[in-house]
Amino acid sequence: MIAFLIIGGGIAGLSAGARLSEHGHVVVLEGEDALGYHTSGRSAALFEKGYGPPSVKTLNAASEAYLRSNGYLSPRGLMLIAGHDQRDAFLQDQADLRLSEISVEEAILRVPILNPQTVGFAAASSVAFDIDTDRMMQDFARVIRANDGLVLTRQKVKSITKVGHWFVEAAEPFEAKALVNAAGAWVDEIAMMAGVTPIGIEPRRRSVARVPAPAGHDVTGWPLMLGAGEGWYAKPDAGKLIVSPCEADPTFPHDAYADDMVLAEGLARYEAMVTEPVTRVEANWAGLRSFAPDGTLVLGPDPAEPTFIWSAAQGGYGFQTAPAASQLVADLTTGARSELEAASVSTLRPERLRG
After folding, report:
1. Which residues pair with 102 in a beta bridge?
2. By CB distance 3.0 to 4.6 Å, which of 51, 52, 182, 186 could disulfide with 311?
């Protein structure tokens, strides 16, 4: 019998599956044709240790050594950009991200298209890194298979019942001792199928556009540029730029697509800070970043049903937290002692959401 049946083939499910495969037979079910089809495959993929609420920063710090030692990180850098009227937002972001303020002139030396007339403040950090998300997901899948587990696609879950063990109907039937709910924006739907109280997940759309590199510029070494107040970001990607309005609009679980109006507004905020306008959009897409009511991850067994395990509410922090978050899921599931402080663990367990 399957020890751990993982529902969801994104980074949350694959990383949890890899950790749990050391403790029993794991099968991962992904409903789409490919792993990471939804949010995991649409990530901006940046590791910045200071990004996120306190519990996320704890997971970031605990994940860094794993990400480095496995070669998933490559230098990118981060630059915060603010207009003359955005001083308060700039100072808040600078403090949260622990960035060093630099002159506008220095910022322009690093990113020549910045507009000296409109950029009022800048700050930067060299310790921000691109994450090789595809290799990371494939490596976790490889660990599962190496431990005699299975990673299956086209396995959309239709029903879940429990009679002693869990019975799951997908493209074929499965029986398991424990379920791991790593279904992203769909985690509450999976919980309700299983007769487990939902956590109140809120999917929020984030749109992205790919645009050509500004004429005559090699963007390869540019940092990720973040507008103050998280009003936009621009990041080099395969010789081009990806630009996002950084929206977090609540929506419902679905195959997300970019909102053209929101995207246009975000591109306008980016263009206001640079000298080179966007001449065309080559592609656009959107992902759903899923949040619990308190904005942090939900990890570990459900207090009312210990064989129903949450790996949920990554909220856009999935890749940067995956090594530590997945280890915590395994520790809480198997009863092992976590290397994280107890106070941090309590902010991540599902018990906190049960009143």
Report:
1. 122
2. 182
- Quote the longest CA-to-CA distance of the chain: 68
Do β-strands 150-152 and 119-125 pair in parallel, antiparallel, or remain unpaired? unpaired
- What is the model's pLDDT at position 41? 53
For 223, phi then psi, to 5°, come to -75, 165
Distance CA 221, CA 239 (A): 10
Phi, psi at 60, each rounded to 5°: -55, -50
The CA distance from 152 to 173, in Å, is 13
Strands 150-152 and 159-163: unpaired
Ordered by where they begin, the domains of the chain are 2-46+132-201+293-353 (3.50.50.60), 78-125+202-291 (3.30.9.10)
Write the DSSP assignment of 223-289 as a string of letters: PEEEEGGG--EEEEETTEEEEE----EE--SS-----HHHHHHHHHHHHTTBSS------EEEEEEE
| Residue 87 DSSP SS3 | helix
Name the stretches of the chain with pLDDT < 50: none
CB 184 within 8 A of CB 190: no
Q: What amino acid is encoded at 123 in this protein? A: A
- List the one residue out of 217, 226, 220 whose CA is nearest residue 124: 226
pLDDT of residue 216: 82
Query: Rounded to an integer, what distance in angstroms lies between the CA atom of residue 72 and that of residue 137?
Result: 11
Structure tokens at 7: 């529902």
**Region class of 278: left (phi > 0), else alpha (psi between -120 and 50), else beta:** beta
pLDDT given for residue 103 in this prediction? 99
- pTM of full prediction above 0.70: yes
Q: Is 1 helix (H, G, I), strand (E, B) or coil?
A: coil
Of the candidates 7, 14, 12, the residue with the CA atom closest to the CA atom of residue 312? 12
Contact indicator for 279, 231 with CB cutoff of 8 Å: no
